[in-house]
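Please decode residue identities from the backbone states below.
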């Protein structure tokens, strides 16, 4: 059985000012870096060693992974990037303010179509209103996400890995969980640096904790104690 520790990247500049990041990219802020250092220290305190590491090919996930591996003392393990676990592409709305997209354009589309805001409806609505022609249909988006994570888990299983770490994005992680648990409400508000714990055995995913912040809390306590010592 493979334990999968699926992490949302650290807080970025666009996260801080409420912009839809998508396939555009901004670096972690100082606060974002600190949160991921906390996470790494939390993993270290729990003596978690990873056999494999994957992230999307976005700068913010690569930066996050570097901090995690360093501060959890897991540097040097096999690590690859995979574009299939990127964030959703918001097309011509990439980099725009969240409010313009999620509170403006999309609600108008939903009112016109009379659809509830499922992930499928959101993805197809973005595709419909994207003037750049970059956004993905739900079929394309959900397919790449599920295939990407499945291939990573299969590889880990074949290599006999016990623990693997993956760094991805908020809506991508939430989409994966919804695809694995279609009868449950979709996850909301996955915090930066949160950990979603999955297992993979006999080609099957099981979901345990979604958006767990306990590792960060452990690391935060360690950092504050170090600060107090000085």
């Amino acid at each position: 059985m493979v334990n999968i520790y699926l992490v949302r990247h650290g807080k970025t500049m666009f996260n801080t000012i409420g912009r839809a990041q998508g396939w555009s990219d901004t670096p972690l802020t100082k606060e974002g870096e600190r949160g991921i250092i906390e996470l790494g220290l939390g993993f270290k305190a729990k003596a978690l060693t990873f056999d494999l590491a994957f992230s999307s090919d976005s700068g913010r996930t690569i930066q996050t992974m570097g901090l995690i591996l360093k501060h959890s003392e897991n540097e040097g393990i096999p690590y690859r990037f995979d574009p299939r676990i990127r964030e959703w592409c918001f097309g011509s709305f990439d980099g725009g303010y969240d409010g313009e997209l999620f509170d403006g354009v999309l609600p108008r589309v939903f009112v016109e179509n009379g659809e509830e805001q499922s992930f499928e409806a959101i993805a197809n609505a973005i595709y419909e209103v994207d003037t750049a022609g970059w956004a993905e249909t739900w079929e394309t988006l959900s397919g790449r996400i599920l295939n990407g994570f499945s291939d990573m888990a299969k590889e880990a299983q074949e290599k006999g890995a016990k623990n693997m770490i993956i760094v991805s994005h908020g809506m991508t992680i939430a989409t994966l969980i919804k695809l694995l648990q279609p009868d449950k409400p979709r996850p909301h508000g996955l915090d930066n640096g949160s950990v979603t714990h999955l297992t993979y055995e006999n080609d099957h995913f099981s979901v345990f904790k979604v958006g767990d912040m306990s590792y960060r809390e452990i690391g935060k306590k360690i950092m504050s104690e170090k600060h107090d010592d000085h």
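Observation: The domain at 2-91+136-229 is CATH 3.40.50.1240 (Rossmann fold).
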